[in-house]
Design goal:
mainly alpha
């Protein structure tokens, strides 16, 4: 399941099979203006670098799995709850970063990011639901652990049914080529 979640996160890295040429570099071109709006960039490399960069903290958070001590159920439940709390915060940060990337300079880029944001929101909701349920479990009550724990983590299993929100990102030659030049996308791919 972690691989799936990482795949959702890393799926904006649209690197393989690049044949289009895209000019530009990964220099920061979009910024928050005085009115609080995001200045658009016309550089696909800079834009996709921001998109990938917004996902890096989430990828790092998800790859830092909790350590479980099977002999200490209370600590195991707390470790999982803490992990989910950190993951929720990282999803929030990723969503903010995707917003901060600004409008896409290429067709379908905005719709693609909207689908990624929807998937991340679904992931965050599942994390929140599981964490809330875990926090109500009495880890010292064996019966509670045996019955409530499997039910608590069930929403995580549902994440494997999410559709890949990045199909059109992967099919865009311009975005694939931009991602191949974007340092954050390269980092995301290497650590994914």
């Amino acid at each position: 399941m972690r691989r799936f979640i990482l795949a959702v996160v890393a799926a904006t890295v649209v690197l393989s099979g690049c044949s289009a040429t895209v000019s530009g570099s990964a220099s920061p071109t979009g910024a928050v203006t005085g009115g609080g709006t995001i200045a658009a960039t016309t550089d696909p490399v800079a834009w996709v670098d921001k998109v990938c960069g917004s996902l890096l903290p989430l990828q790092r958070s998800l790859s830092n799995e909790p350590q479980f001590d099977q002999n200490d159920p209370a600590a195991a439940v707390k470790a999982l709850s803490d992990f989910l709390g950190r993951a929720e915060a990282a999803v929030d940060q990723a969503l903010s970063g995707l917003d901060a990337a600004g409008p896409s300079p290429v067709p379908n880029g905005d719709a693609s990011v909207a689908r990624v944001k929807t998937a991340l929101t679904t992931v965050r909701s599942a994390f929140d639901q599981v964490k809330t349920t875990l926090d109500k479990i009495d880890p010292n009550n064996t019966t509670d652990l045996i019955t409530a724990l499997p039910q608590a983590v069930a929403p995580l299993e549902q994440l494997s049914k999410l559709q890949d929100p990045t199909t059109d990102l992967k099919s865009s030659p311009e975005l694939k080529a931009a991602a191949a030049k974007a340092p954050n996308c390269q980092t995301l791919e290497k650590s994914g």
